[in-house]
Amino acid sequence: MKLDIFQVDAFAERVFHGNPAAVVPLYEWLSDDLMQNIARENNLSETAFFVRKGEYFELRWFTPEFEIDLCGHATMASAHVLCAHMGYEDPAVVFVTKSGRLFVDRDEDGMYSMDIPAWPVKEIQVTERVTKALGARPEALYANRRDMMALYASEQDVRGLKPDAQLVSQLDGVCLICTAPGEDHDFVSRVFSPGASIFEDPVTGSAHCGLVPFWAERLGRDSLYAHQASERGGDIRCENAGDRIKIAGRAVTYMTGSITL
């Protein structure tokens, strides 16, 4: 059996930037074990699989270690594969996922815009475990349904963090998000998720489910321009819309190929 596979850099203007995701279009679902093994072999932060079901697509995401319930950059990458490589011409792609229906629009200029859930955060106590794991005490600590978020005073504080991977992996949540006001952007962030085998995620769409409503309230406006300050880096245009958010960026294809099983 051969399967098509694409590797796409999402939230990127050119290759070697943004966040790489593998995308595997399917005619029917493979076993969970086989999809997990493919994701482990790819060894990227996420591998996306989708199956067409009439007018929409069922979409699932796997890290090298486990399936997750939401991944922004691999959703954008999947829409890019459909539009750029599979002749999909409708103005919007509808994905059905474990986080509900997700909508991705592509404009004439090649910008992808995703409509995904908002996950508001609640403040929790700053602990010594978090401080030691990050190597610098945050001003405040927050949590939502899946992740923790540490707030720092400046962009340079976030860029200068040198977390301890072992200590971070012992914390609760899927991701530990670190954020601060930006110098050239409304806010910046870095995202660590060692439990998923990728210590620092380059650009994390799902992290903005909490970041966007937080910064929209803090800054008093709903349109925001964000930057994830990883080594690869990536810019994200954000819109707060109550219980939903929109995040937008570009995507470029790095590689196409086939999997032989």
From TrEMBL:
The keyword Ribonucleoprotein does not apply. Pfam families: PhzC-PhzF. The active site is at residue 46. One of its GO terms (cellular component) is cytoplasm. Keywords: Isomerase. SUPFAM superfamilies: Diaminopimelate epimerase-like. One of its GO terms (molecular function) is isomerase activity. Belongs to the PhzF family. NCBIfam families: PhzF_family. This is PhzF family phenazine biosynthesis protein. It comes from Pseudodesulfovibrio senegalensis.
